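User: quick one, sequence for these tokens?
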């Protein structure tokens, strides 16, 4: 493996892709003092990073060869593959960290490609928005060979105080990423629908928002309780049962229909709950609906 030294003994790094996230990652490396080379497919990006001490490479290969560890962070795996495939020789014996978001299958294909070319590969997923990158609260998930993660952990912590290693299966970061985004986007859609419902009865979003925090505040306890119930297959519903909660969904559907609002998400929620009740989970907790989510296989 190529080991390079810099004047300050920090690992020289390269960042390929200077979209919003790539720029934030490169900025975090610069803040931590890493010699940092950057590259982007289109010109006109990275001048601000150069002003902060980065070197702007003319080609992706030039960037990779200047560094011991290369981070690629672009829009998807088609894009990262297009960038990386011509760089197999330059990346051999170097470390590649792919922080592009994608499906687990694409990650495994990328990891197989890296292995075939002697490239040391870690995959990862950035779980915070760009302003948090580099900070103590920033979370980036990593997966791949544990010794490689441990060797470069200090370097990776320049990007995120919470650099979490999940395991040797490269796809794990993507599995966690997409599972977390599943919650995020369902919540985003529910949040907007809540504001829409309130607006129909002349309640301003800013008036409702402080009260929504009560719902947000109970979610961490619900998540840990539900996780334990699901892993144990024990869906005790004594505190709040699925039939009662499904009646609440009916109230929501009624009010939304009455005001002419889209009911797609609520109907999907109701359909899942009804299937679970039909299978005998009416007196169980909401977590029991996991038993009816799998539609085939
Ligand atoms: N932004 C966030 O808050 C955030 C948070 C968490 C995770 N992420 C993840 O970070 C990754 C990058 O997101 P971003 O916000 O930086 O996206 P972005 O601002 O839209 O930038 C996209 C980047 O991908 C490059 N790209 C697109 N197609 C390409 C291709 N065919 N070949 C080469 N380069 C290509 C773009 O290059 P050009 O400039 O040449 O088009 C640009 O560098 C995504 O996987 C995203 O899910 C982002």
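Assistant:
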């Amino acid at each position: 493996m190529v080991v390079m030294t810099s004047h300050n003994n920090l690992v020289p790094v390269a960042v390929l892709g200077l979209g919003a996230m790539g720029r934030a990652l490169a900025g975090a490396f610069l803040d931590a003092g890493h010699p940092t080379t950057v590259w982007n497919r289109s010109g006109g990006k990275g001048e601000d990073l150069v002003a902060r001490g980065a070197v702007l490479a003319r080609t992706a290969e030039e960037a990779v060869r200047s560094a011991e560890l290369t981070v690629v962070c672009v829009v998807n795996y088609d894009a990262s593959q297009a960038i990386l495939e011509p760089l197999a020789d330059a990346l051999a014996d170097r470390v590649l960290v792919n922080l592009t978001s994608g499906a687990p299958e694409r990650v495994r294909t990328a990891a197989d490609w890296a292995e075939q070319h002697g490239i040391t590969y870690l995959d990862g997923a950035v779980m915070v928005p760009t302003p948090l990158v580099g900070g103590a609260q920033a979370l980036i998930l990593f997966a791949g060979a544990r010794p490689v993660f441990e060797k470069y952990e200090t370097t990776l912590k320049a990007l995120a105080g919470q650099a979490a290693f999940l395991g040797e299966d490269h796809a794990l970061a993507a599995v966690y990423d997409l599972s977390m985004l599943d919650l995020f986007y369902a919540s985003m859609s529910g949040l907007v629908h809540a504001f829409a419902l309130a607006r129909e009865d002349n309640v301003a979003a800013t008036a409702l928002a402080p009260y929504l925090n009560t719902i947000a505040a109970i979610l961490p306890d619900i998540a840990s309780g539900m996780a334990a119930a699901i892993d144990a297959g024990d869906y005790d519903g004594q505190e709040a049962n699925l039939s009662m909660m499904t009646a609440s969904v009916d109230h929501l559907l009624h009010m939304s229909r009455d005001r002419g609002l889209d009911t797609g998400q609520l109907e999907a929620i109701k359909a899942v709950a009804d299937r679970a009740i039909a299978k005998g989970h009416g007196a169980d907790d909401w977590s029991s609906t996991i038993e009816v989510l799998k539609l085939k296989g």
